[in-house]
Structure formats: C-alpha cells, structure tokens
Amino acid sequence: MTFSKLGNTALATLLAGAMMVGAAAAETLRLSHNTGDTTTWQKGAEKFGELLSEATDGEMTVRVFPNAQLAGGDQMRQAEMVGRGAVDLVVTSAINVTPLVPEMAAFSLPYLYANYDEVDATTQGEPGAKLAEILAGKGIIVLAWGENGFREVTNNTRPIHSPEDMKGLNMRVAGPMYIDVMNALGANPQQMQWGETMTALQQGVVDGQENPIGAVIIPQQVYEVQKYLTAWHYSYDPIFIGISQKKWDSYDAETQAKVKAAAEEAMAYQRDISREATASGIAFLRDKGMEVYEPTAEELAAFKAATQPAFDEWAAKVGPELVESFQSAIDGAK
Ligand code: X2X
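That is the input. Now the predicted structure with X2X docked in place:
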C-alpha cells in the first residue's frame, strides 16, 4: 500500500505515530532539590539541564522541582527516593542525607575546616570519592560536588559573640548533628523543614537558624525576618548532584560521560556563584539592615571549644578511618 491510497485520517495517524516514536527517544529527567527557586542550588540545577541538553542535542532535558515538592516537602526523603529510583536526580546537601548515610556528617563536623582550599581538598579529593562509594551502596551515584557553604548563625534576640550568647535561644536546625551542636552550646534546637522555617522565624516560633550566606540567606531573603548574623563559620555543608543508580545503569558509557561532564561543569559554576555571593554578602546584609558580627580568632576558638563534645560524638559515629581521611586531605591543603 502506498501513501496515495491512504485516506487523510489514516495518514495523520501514521504521521502522529512516527512523531511519537521520535518523542520517546528524548527523555526528561526529574530533579528534586529542597531550597527555593532563587537559590544557587536552583541555578546549578538549571545549568546542569542546559549543559546536558546541549551535549545531547536536546535528547535529554531536566525538569527542576524546588522546595522538595517531589518528596512532599520532606528534604530528608529526597535521597532515599533517588536511591530507589522514584526520582531521577537530586541536588541536596550533606546534612540532609545523614539519616540515610550518617557518614555524610563528616563534612559538617564543627570547625573541621579553616578555608575553601581545605574544603576543596576533601570534596574534590579522596574523602569525596569515599563518600560517593558509600552513597553508591544506597543506589545514588554522585555526579559532582557543589556548595551550600559555611553555615552562619542568625537570630532575632541578640548579637552572638560567645557561646554564652547562644544559651536558651530557640534554634531551627536542619538535621541530627546540628541538634547535638546546638545542645553543646546551650541552645534549644528544633529540627524543622527548610520549607517551614521562614514562617516559623517570622512568627517567632523559633528565634534563629543557621545557613550559608551566598547560597541560601541572601537568595531566600532571610534578612527580611532576622536581625543579627554572626559569621562564625561553624560548619561546612557541601551539596552534590546525584542520579539514581537505576537511571545511570540504563545509559551507555558515552551517555554517562555526557551526564557526568554536565554535572561537573554545573557544580563548578554553582560553587563559583555561591562563593561570589558570600564574599559580597556581608556588605549586602548590612545594607539590608542586619547587624553582622565577625568574631575574632579568640572568639572563634571559644565556639570551637564549646562544640568539641558534638565533634567527638559525631566523629565516632562517622568512624575514625573516615575522619582520618578528611584530616589528612585537610593537612595536605595547609
Ligand atoms: O535546610 C537547610 O538549612 C538547608 C537548606 O541548608 C539544607 O538543605 C541543609
């Protein structure tokens, strides 16, 4: 039978069928992250999508879902969902993965790092590779590490200059390790979803919170609901792009290389914009009316000493070998 013998309807059906076959080859991946759509997490995720589309001539696209929408608002659940293949991709931070992989807390041990060089020696070095191996055991393939950043404390009650100033403050925290750190400082920690935190701060349900300046505090306008910020650099939090092992295993080596390269470039970009926004951030926040305090070396030492019990407790949970791997990478960067 030739086309000329087909009626118009039959021809239209055939053409539609051919188009659907074409469409089925293209793939849209769903990416979940748990901050708002103004953050550097979102920008890094969007950059990954753009780069991947370019590299695959539009065969692969990424749809970004912010605010942990795909996990019903539960930021801790995202990693587990990716692990079992319910979501294709995740951009999330270390602390959110600790319920599934407690070893992820190694990155965020209080006062582990003194600067970005030390950070990069771990995320881009052997410790990062070790964590990627552990995550692979949970069905999550780490494609690249990015940055949430050094977490700084904000509150509405008083300026924080010393551990004593933390006493009795009601603090929203993201995850388990920070509960122990806040307890060590004499604060009253309360674990809460990030998606509920701005309202809780506004209504005075909690007095304060802690988050990185460039990646979260500025883009999510925390300065609108908080008066005091202390740049105490007490804990570093990396993010990563992870893909479900199920998805990953469905690709040939060439496609895997494209996905990995797009993720690495996107996270390098995301780290850069987070660091730039942090560097200019203190001036920006003062301009917005926040009272920003930058502690002296002695004051930082006092915070470090006060949080040591939480460090020791979590170093034991994470395991001495892993902590040793972090510390030797850090020493190599000194
Ligand atoms: O919830 C937080 O504080 C955030 C956004 O930094 C994390 O996802 C850990």
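Residues 253-279 form the longest helix (27 residues).
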